[in-house]
Amino acid sequence: MVDVAALVLEKIPLDATAIGGLTMGADGVSFITAGVAATKGRALRAFSIRKEVKDHGAGGRIAGSLERGDRVVITEDTVTRGLSQLEAASVVRDFGADVVLILAVVDRGGTAGALAAEAGLTFDALFSAPDLGFPYEGA
User: Fold this and answer.
1) So what's the pLDDT on residue 67?
2) Which pTM was predicted?
3) Which residues lie across from 5 on neighbouring strands?
């Protein structure tokens, strides 16, 4: 996973200040990438977005370190359609942070880029299903 995090870090714009997405798919990518960034002297906060609002403790959907005004990379381990990443981007925007990139480790559906573009967002993936020798799901 550390090697994947290093590849993720290479794709993240230098002005990004935080990385996260919907729990559980984004958690490993986000927190390990933030750790790898720290070993390279780069500050990158990590956070998770809960599927539902928590009604105890700090509450809300965001757990971890996200601040208003952060420049955020929304991430996910695998993406098929891209809907969960758009949901995460919406939560981050509503919180008061700016989404600068949506990034998946594997794009297995081939539609996330178009969906992100419709929402005014940029999508990228480390690998596509065809890169790994498989057709896109639904193709």
Assistant:
1) 96
2) 0.92
3) none
